[in-house]
Design a protein that fits this description.
heterodimer; A: alpha+beta; two-stranded antiparallel sheet; 4 strands; B: alpha/beta; FAD/NAD(P)-binding domain; Enolase-like, domain 1; 8-stranded mixed sheet; binds flavin-adenine dinucleotide; binds iron/sulfur cluster; transport (chain A)
């Protein structure tokens, strides 16, 4: 299954929960802490962590879409 | 009948429902809320929505298609009025009965009101999208704003008021703004920040009575004298929305009292601002009023509904935006005896500090230092 990750950057409040949940996929900018998406199509072993990050984000700024595979 | 009935269709309620689906829950989920709006997020209300940087609909928590994909029976504009925990049934306004397998209470808070100001033209509270529309409408035509209460919400409204070009006075009996959340040192820094931005900060001051002229508030009498204003926002805290649970037999004590699993009774859970649960690591009962807790507790309750039987033991976290400062706090600052700066300089409004009690780090705070504060979080010992 392919996973498409998108960031709604203006929503991000720089909480950093995504970085704690999935450090391979998310980072934060140095100056204001806004999220940086490191990998918009993360590999399968990251999927669970990315979904967890999307659930935990207090700003609902992380969108996760399934692309292909299961409907 | 729904397998899970969630009452309160906002951050915590939606997080619970969404987490259940993400965990593979296939039963039916009903989400009931008394507001007419699709679930929306509150933190932007006092910031981007009040300032006008965002339209109201940008505060929505989920896009309509994402909401639909959750396969939830969303019942809006419907207020729960009572629950019978033995029959496992909630009654909503109009008399409709909603039987459930598990009940999740997620009704949040209601703003505390000051009797003397209640219902007066020019007096406001801020909790909902409807509140912010009314307040913004009046602020656009106003010149002077008084905020009663220098908690997180009062401070944010003051900052946004300045951003809109109004003259702003903040009144609070406490010695510093946000003292209950951040302690005296950081509170003093905040007072400085507001003063530097032109706010009249009247700490150690009590609001006594409104002065009404032609049916509208024009001044407020305080223990420091009269203050002129066209608009008054009462931001003196909130109380758990548990009125509908009075006769339920559930234990209510500044929130719905829960065990360490966030369980209030058999098949009844509470999440978010309304929930007071036993925090095993802190060995005390805790109720948090912050956005991250709403999602994290929703996740924890979803897990427990699915049989995880796990205690909920979060490190509290909140942020606030005021002027050019984004402050982030992990843990507990109010109980600290020492604030130790770890990096940066408070004078530059960019620093990370540890809050210590008896030599242990109990919290960390950062101003404009998102990465630094995230890393410093690991210093907190419990
Ligand atoms: C203006 C504002 C700014 C904030 N800013 C920040 C911030 O910067 N950072 C931060 O960490 N936190 C912030 N918060 C706090 C954060 O928004 C709350 O912690 C969060 O909204 C709690 O979510 P909740 O779902 O528990 O409760 P709520 O969001 O209060 O939702 C409860 C819902 O239940 C509904 N309801 C109540 N009674 C009934 C009933 N009987 N039947 C049906 N429905 C009912 C209510 O109408 C409401 O829709 C802010 C809050 C406000 C108001
Ligand atoms: S968790 Fe959300 S708000 Fe926090 S840094 Fe990540 S995207 Fe931004």
């Amino acid at each position: 299954m392919l996973l498409q990750v998108e960031i709604d950057e203006p929503r991000c409040v720089a909480a950093g929960h995504c970085v704690v949940a999935a450090p391979e996929v998310f980072d934060q900018r140095d100056d204001d802490g806004v999220v940086i998406l490191l990998d918009a199509n993360p590999p399968g072993d990251e999927h669970e962590r990315v979904r967890e990050a999307a659930l935990l984000c207090p700003a609902a700024a992380i969108l996760v879409r399934d692309r292909g595979g299961a409907p | 009948m729904s397998d899970v009935l969630v009452v309160g269709a906002s951050a915590a309620g939606l997080a619970t429902a969404e987490s259940l689906r993400r965990r593979g829950f296939t039963g039916s989920i009903r989400l009931v809320g008394d507001e007419a709006h699709q679930p929306y997020d509150r933190p932007p209300l006092s910031k981007k929505v009040l300032s006008g940087a965002w339209a109201a609909d940008q505060a929505a928590l989920r896009a309509p298609d994402a909401l639909a994909a959750l396969d939830i029976d969303l019942v809006l504009g419907s207020k729960a009025v009572s629950v019978d925990v033995r029959k496992q049934e909630v009654v909503v306004s109009g008399g409709r009965r909603l039987p459930y397998g598990d009940l999740v209470i997620a009704t949040g808070l209601a703003p505390r009101r000051l009797g003397a100001f209640d219902g007066l033209a020019g007096a406001h509270v801020l909790r909902t999208l409807d509140d912010v529309a009314r307040l913004r409408g009046e602020l656009l035509a106003a010149e002077r704003l008084i905020v009663l209460g220098a908690g997180v919400l009062g401070c944010e409204i003051a900052a946004t008021g300045r951003q809109l070009g109004l003259g702003v006075t903040v009144v609070d009996p406490a010695p510093v703004p946000m003292g209950a959340q951040v302690g005296p040192e950081i509170g003093a820094l905040l007072a400085e920040l507001h003063r530097a931005n032109g706010v009249e900060v009247l700490t150690g001051t009590k609001a006594e009575a409104p002065v009404v002229t032609n049916g509208r508030i024009t001044e407020v009498l305080t223990s420091a004298g009269l203050v002129t204003a066209d608009v008054v926002v009462v931001a003196v805290g909130s109380t758990p929305a548990t009125d509908w649970l009075e006769d339920s037999g559930l234990i209510l004590d500044d929130g719905v009292v829960c065990d360490s699993r966030c369980r209030a009774a058999d098949n009844v859970y509470a999440v978010g601002d309304v929930a007071r649960w036993w925090h095993e690591r802190q060995a005390r009962s805790v109720r948090l009023e912050n956005r991250t807790n709403a999602t994290e507790q929703g996740l924890a309750v979803a897990d427990n509904i699915m049989g995880a039987d796990k205690p909920y033991v979060p490190v509290p976290y909140f942020w606030t935006d005021q002027y050019d400062v984004r402050m982030q706090v992990f843990g507990d600052l109010a109980g600290a005896d020492t604030i130790r700066v770890l990096e940066g300089d408070p004078a530059d409004r960019k620093f990370v500090a540890a809050a210590e009690a008896a030599g242990r780090v109990v919290g960390v705070v950062g101003w404009n230092s998102a990465r630094g504060v995230r890393k410093a979080r690991e210093l907190i010992t419990s």
